[in-house]
Amino acid sequence: MSRKNGAKIITVLLISLLLSASNHFAFAQDNTKWSGVDKTVVEKVAKEHGRSAWPPFINTDQGDLLLFVFLIAGVSAGFVMGYNFRKLFSKKED
Amino acid sequence: MRRIILPLVCIAFGYLFVFTGTAWAMHISEGILPLKWAAVWYLVAIPFLVMGIFDIKRRSKTTPSFKPLLGLIGALIFVISCMPVPVPTAGTCSHPAGTGISAILIGPLMSVFVTSIALFIQALFLAHGGITTWGADIVSMGIAGSFAGYAAFKILRKFKCSLFVCGFAAGLLADWATYIATSFELASALHGGKSMFPVFYAILIAFIPTQLPLGILEGVLTGGMLVFVYNRRPDILASLGVLKEVDK
């Protein structure tokens, strides 16, 4: 094995070790998988310190309503991005 | 060589996906901060918002391509900051901030304003953040993120670093600064009778599994977007004052 290949293997091993170590650290806190961290974490901190989150003023977090609202928001933002991207980067504008 | 690296990478990532945990993220939910602290962060955010509005008016008159750019950046921040990205090292989803690229292209003050609009819509309709915590979210994501990213970009440009490297540093530091500020906001409001700094460090350290890789991802995206704009429309970067000379 050449010296260059050896260095690459060591780099990969070190990265793996670093990722694994950080994962063990995360695992020590909770076991919820792929949870929405914005909500879960802040509520968790608040709960530990005696505060709880209020429901949103306009509560769209009910069933699939939130998915619908996210979809509408994504489509609208995508349209705005595409429209302005075309204005800025299309060749006609040049 | 590939026969060695590929299994190693697969083992590392497989391991990460099997053993997972949670981490902490930036948007502070409705009602989490006591009203006194919510008011404090509103007071901190308001001057930046006012300066941002004046800056938008001024720049719109002087730079022809500014309005479409502002629209593009606003929508980009909105999408990026409510887009959950799965992070295998933590087993959770978190989102980048997007304030690094916006601060570079439109300036930190306008970046604060644009971020505030995105955060307001998210708080109002997407159950993401909150109206009472809007000020705190503006300070962490808008002010801390934008100014950290902008400063990183400017400093590295002075050292003649490449556009990608400067953008990478801006994206990385904007992301990390956002989470440092969030930790501070939560710790300052919730530490109670205890000392604030142990709480602050505990929250900050808990962010690391998620935000370490996500910050790197945001850095790569920011650097890539800057290089893309440079390749397609270098005149935009020149007119915005991002590049004084047209070279990378």
Q: Could you walk me through the main structural features you see in this protein, from its secondary elements to its overall organization?
A:
The complex is a heterodimer of chains A (94) and B (248). By secondary structure, chain A is mostly helical. Chain A folds into 2 domains: 1-30; 57-94. Chain A is 66% helix and 0% strand. Chain A contains 3 helices and no strands. The longest helix of chain A is centred in the N-terminal third of the chain and has 25 residues, at 3-27. The radius of gyration of chain A is 23 Å and the shape is flat. Chain B has a two-stranded antiparallel ribbon. Mean pLDDT of chain B is 85; it is low at 12-25. The two termini of chain B are 34 Å apart. Chain B has one domain: Arp2/3 complex 21 kDa subunit ARPC3, CATH 1.10.1760. In chain B, 73% of the residues lie in helices and 2% in strands. Chain B has helices at 2-18, 35-62, 66-80, 99-106, 108-125, 134-158, 163-190, 196-232, 234-239, and strands spanning 85-87, 92-94. Chain B contains 9 helices and 2 strands, in the order αααββαααααα. The longest helix of chain B is centred in the C-terminal third of the chain and has 37 residues, at 196-232. Classes of the chains: A mainly alpha (94), B mainly alpha (248). The interface between A and B is large, with 62 and 72 residues.
